[in-house]
Design brief:
Elements: H1 4-27, H2 33-47, H3 50-62, H4 66-93
Helix pairs in contact: 1-2, 1-4, 3-4
Length: 96
């Protein structure tokens, strides 16, 4: 079974990283370089769970739940990219 908790955390991490990344890339005013490193690598890097996603997908495939493993990969990818796009749109709408 797909882990919806991991999926939700990864999608939210993508969303917030996209919002903050737009500020850094385009305006570079809201965060110092130290704050960006702390936020992107420390907080969001620790918040998202790629290693959990990889382990869950591996476990599904090992247990011959190949459809669930492929669904997990597809959902993680699609929702992650969608969240990045939404975060970019939100950041732009907020004037970032």
């Amino acid at each position: 079974m797909v882990s919806y908790g991991t999926l939700a955390v990864n999608a939210m991490g993508c969303l917030w990283l996209s919002v903050f990344w737009r500020d850094w890339r385009e305006t570079r005013t809201a965060f110092t370089s130290e704050a960006r490193l702390f936020l992107f690598v420390g907080i969001l890097g620790g918040f998202t769970t790629f290693s959990s996603f990889a382990l869950e997908t591996f476990s599904l495939a090992r247990d011959t739940q190949n459809v669930a493993a492929l669904m997990n990969i597809g959902l993680q990818l699609i929702l992650g990219l969608l969240a990045v796009w939404i975060g970019n749109v939100l950041a732009h709408a907020m004037g970032g």
